[in-house]
Amino acid sequence: MFEIIRDIGAITRKIEINTNAEFRRLGLANNAFIYVIRSYEKPGMFLGELADSVQIDRTTAFRTVRKLVDSGYLRLEDDANDKRLRRVYVTKKGADVYPELHAFEQHSSDTLVSQLTDNEKNELKRLLGKLIY
Amino acid sequence: MFEIIRDIGAITRKIEINTNAEFRRLGLANNAFIYVIRSYEKPGMFLGELADSVQIDRTTAFRTVRKLVDSGYLRLEDDANDKRLRRVYVTKKGADVYPELHAFEQHSSDTLVSQLTDNEKNELKRLLGKLIY
DNA sequence: TTCAATTCATTGCATTTGCAATTACTTTCA
DNA sequence: TGAAAGTAATTGCAAATGCAATGAATTGAA
């Protein structure tokens, strides 16, 4: 059953290479596009929460977010109650680029599952949702 | 359907972090363990072939393999017919460590699919095999 | 209520990464 | 055959990465 791990590892690396190449022109390579997408969809996550949600090392995530703040895609806001937390939001620039990012993600996904029937697509989604990691 | 891409990305990153932590003591972090496993199972791939089979950048793969040659896990052999090619084999040291590497991979995989029935496991494997990447 | 354990963000540092370029074959095709 | 195109391995270099450590804030348990 280890083929599952190998398959998803290879798929992930291939998609990351493609997507980073696609968004390098926007300054969103090195998986930076991920943070813009997630912050748009769920505004106000704190840094560690955001990192954990995509399973990226917190220090790497921290530095990428800082870069995205510098380049104007994201902004940070101190939490009112817990002084440790800094919450992440997209700026207008981030919101403006979201549709393009998401469309490419959608396109990558469509290509990936293009040989599956609709039933199989749903089944795959369901099964992936049951995985424990 | 983009959830599929997100799920497998997060799973892959999480598993890589775990596995790298596990095999750092053997000098096999940074995905180095992957090359030992693959070279053991399919001896004689040339460098680019090995890199492509796991979807890792060829230059990164090249440097990792060189490190593994230096540390005694792998060895290279010039191809007899095509002078460009260098084929990769495990050494005794590499072969000796393979069972442990594969057992951990097996264990990670078992944990991942532990909430699935046997039928679901087989179905997941089948569906992943149909993906285009 | 106090102090130990936990959880944040952040930094230091050595290592790794990967794009772009180079060199050395090999293959193709006119 | 011979030049052009394609495919290896390899290197240069700037940037990214991630483990380990730090300090500040919060939580929990006695």
From TrEMBL, chains A, B:
Residues 1-133 form the HTH marR-type domain. Coiled coil: none annotated. It comes from the Bacteria. PANTHER family: MARR FAMILY REGULATORY PROTEIN, TRANSCRIPTIONAL REGULATOR, MARR. It holds the Pfam family MarR_2. InterPro entries: HTH_MarR-typ, Tscrpt_reg_MarR-type_CS, WH-like_DNA-bd_sf, WH_DNA-bd_sf. GO terms for molecular function: DNA binding; DNA-binding transcription factor activity. It comes from Secundilactobacillus mixtipabuli. Keywords: DNA-binding, Transcription, Transcription regulation. This is MarR family transcriptional regulator.
